[in-house]
Amino acid sequence: MSERPLDANSVAVIGAGAFGTALAVAALQAGGPTPRRVILLSRRESQVEDFKTSGRNEDALPGIALPEGLIVTAEPDAIEQAGTVLLAVPSQAQGEMARALLPLIARRADVVVCAKGLERETGRLLTEVVGEQLHRDDIAVLSGPGFAADIARGLPTAMTLAAASAEQAHAIATRLSGPTFRLYASTDRVGVQLGGALKNVLAIACGIIEGAGLGESARAAMISRGLAEMSRLVTARGGVADTVRGLSGLGDLVLTGTSHQSRNLRYGIALGRGGAAREAAGRELVEGALAASVAAQDAAARGIDMPITQAVAAIIDGGFDIRAAVDALMSRPITQE
């Protein structure tokens, strides 16, 4: 990582998709009266030119005008002095992107993972993956209930910022919070990340229930029992059980498990209506589909009972049909809640 001077008031967002663009807008608005330099780094020069011409990201956030002052570029060198670096690329690209940007990220910059998932090959947390590439153990993570379009439009949104220390978490949360974008500080990076990854799996389950016409009572039962599964894995991996009842667990699950803006919910609905996994995904990246099998394997290896997660993974893999999954879940032994 570079030794160049650090601009503490500069924020770099890596990834010009919907969420990255929305975070860049929020970061610029969070600056208040103090001038702030916010860089949105895109992979494509053509996208940068479209931004400059239209003032919008029509591919990812159609119809939403971007604020003046946002620096959109395809030149990686632009991030060199950024005091805060937000990695807003898909979960499986986080490590690769961190490795590519290693020479450009200032050593004292706060680096924040802004994706929800687990490393496919190992099941590791994304902060561990990115930390390994950057040779650091203080990688922070942003997670919680926030749709990109809502954030970019300035609609009230609250999320969680977890870091290695309370001081670091509070500092980053304060730096990025604005009039309509509020971050709550946490030190439970394990619980926040597992909540973000598993809520996608459970949102697929909510979609399957909706698509198969199983009723709202089934959805409510799935959400409550899904939280119990989430809590078991969080505690087994060293996190705090209460975290799953906060924004990054319950809050995010309620949002993605009930709103049709959620691609994971839409994917589940397509599965519930009888679609095959590949057809249901279409061209969308469905993070929950990747996380389901990873989480199911991790739970099995640890001896943790996660029947909903395992059922979703089996349905996606084609080893279970919907009716067989429901029968298996409903015929489980009666236990104490």
TrEMBL record:
InterPro entries: 6-PGluconate_DH-like_C_sf, 6PGD_dom2, G3P_DH_NAD-dep, G3P_DH_NAD-dep_C, G3P_DH_NAD-dep_N, NAD(P)-bd_dom_sf. Sn-glycerol 3-phosphate binds at residues 116, 144, 199, 252, 262-264. Keywords: Cytoplasm, Lipid biosynthesis, Lipid metabolism, NAD, NADP, Nucleotide-binding, Oxidoreductase, Phospholipid biosynthesis, Phospholipid metabolism. It comes from the Bacteria. It is found in: Cytoplasm. Its EC number is 1.1.1.94. Gene3D superfamilies: N-(1-d-carboxylethyl)-l-norvaline Dehydrogenase, domain 2, NAD(P)-binding Rossmann-like Domain. It is an enzyme of class 1 (oxidoreductase). NADPH binds at residues 19, 43-44, 116, 148, 263, 285, 287. Residues 11-167 form the Glycerol-3-phosphate dehydrogenase NAD-dependent N-terminal domain. Residues 188-326 form the Glycerol-3-phosphate dehydrogenase NAD-dependent C-terminal domain. PROSITE patterns: NAD_G3PDH. It catalyses: sn-glycerol 3-phosphate + NAD(+) = dihydroxyacetone phosphate + NADH + H(+); sn-glycerol 3-phosphate + NADP(+) = dihydroxyacetone phosphate + NADPH + H(+). The active site is at 199 (proton acceptor). Belongs to the NAD-dependent glycerol-3-phosphate dehydrogenase family. NCBIfam families: PRK00094.1-2, PRK00094.1-4. Catalyzes the reduction of the glycolytic intermediate dihydroxyacetone phosphate (DHAP) to sn-glycerol 3-phosphate (G3P), the key precursor for phospholipid synthesis. This is Glycerol-3-phosphate dehydrogenase [NAD(P)+]. It comes from Xaviernesmea rhizosphaerae. The gene is gpsA.
